[in-house]
Amino acid sequence: MKIQHRPARPARSLPRSSSGKVVAVTGGAGFLGTHLCEALLARGHHVVSLDNYATGSRENLRPLVATNRLTLIEHDVVEPFPAGLPRFDEIWNLACPASPPHYQRDPVRTLFICADGARRVLERAAEDGARIFHASTSEVYGDPDIHPQPETYAGHVNPVGPRACYDEGKRFAEAVFTDGCARAGLELRMARIFNTYGPFMHPDDGRVVSNFVVQALRGEDITVYGDGSQTRSFCYADDLIAGFLALMALDGDPSGPVNLGNPVETRMDELAELVVDLTGSRSRIVRRPLPVDDPRRRRPDIAKARALLNWEPKVSLRAGLTRTIDYFAGRIAAEPPMRLL
Ligand code: NAD
Ligand code: UDP
Prior knowledge:
By secondary structure, this protein is an alpha/beta fold. It has ten helices and 13 strands. It is 35% helix and 16% strand.
């Protein structure tokens, strides 16, 4: 693939305010994409969301269209960027199914969303001279044998297991962006995101926080996989987005990926009990089989983010869950079934 940094083209269709940038967000209609679009619009930028709505929803972004600075484009990121778009100052690459049941539904496609999605963003950024933000993941560490996980840890991923399509796709994308940006002289910011939750998750997303909260609110059994002793470290969406913005705005070279996540570690059986407590639900907590290759534990070492960005999460799990429960309580009754990949 030939990647050249060409002189920037002028914006074609979007007016530029004096301070506002023109930015693209792939996966803008998803859980994190919605929070990000909201934050970028609040800062006066023009945002173009490119999303095929596989796991995201136009409804998430509908209230933001009133800003007149948000353009929604239905687009599959494995294809080249659509014609007729303005020159972008920044491209934020979030498009990818992120929940295990969704990314495992068509594993080969997931691999190519990661791979071709990265290639298309890189090609377009090279044309525009845009700075790239890539949403990578703690899954690049696999089932870690170093704990907590610093960015220097190369990981422990099973390349042929059921999670490989996501883990290896994300690892490949990191390599594409690292080498491609170095060759094209482009600015790159890569976040390794640890489990994040909050409003705008889909009720049928399948990840643990939305599952437990929705099950508790519906009075259904709360499904703890395995014995519940496995851990994750949960970051509230607002904290994560503050980290995104700080990382993208960083002037100096971050020297590779930066972990963003909340270092407070929680067992899944404790999470289930906390959700029951906060919802006042009468749901039973039941056990289901632990999925193959499910990481036993995960916690970010955020020393790099603290030092580079002066960033750390502020929202406790209890406070973040309370806001998330309020959100789901307000919408689950009216939610149509999710359209799957
Ligand atoms: P999400 O599933 O809610 O959002 C993903 C978005 O990408 C959706 O809007 C979906 O429709 C879109 N998309 C998927 N395939 C596409 C395609 N081929 N073309 C165009 N759009 C496509 O998930 P999320 O939690 O918002 O995750 C966003 C990004 O952050 C993902 O790249 C994910 O891997 C990464 N991430 C998230 C977390 C987390 O805890 N939320 C953790 C680590 C990494
Ligand atoms: N999990 C669970 N019940 C559920 C969904 C998930 O116990 O209904 C567990 C899952 O096995 C894993 C943890 O919760 O150990 C986090 O799962 P999630 O899919 O949210 O994220 P990931 O495994 O990708 O970190």
